[in-house]
Amino acid sequence: MPDTPDLESRTVPEDHRDLRLWLRMLTCCNLIESEIRSRLRTEYETTLPRFDLMAQLLRAPGGMKMSELSRHMMVTNGNITGITDQLEKEGLVERVKVATDRRSSLIKLTGKGKRSFKKMAQAHEQWVQSLFSGLSEKSRNALFDALGELKLLTRPQPSDRN
Question: What is the DSSP string of 99-112?
Answer without folding.
Answer: TTEEEEEEEEE-HH
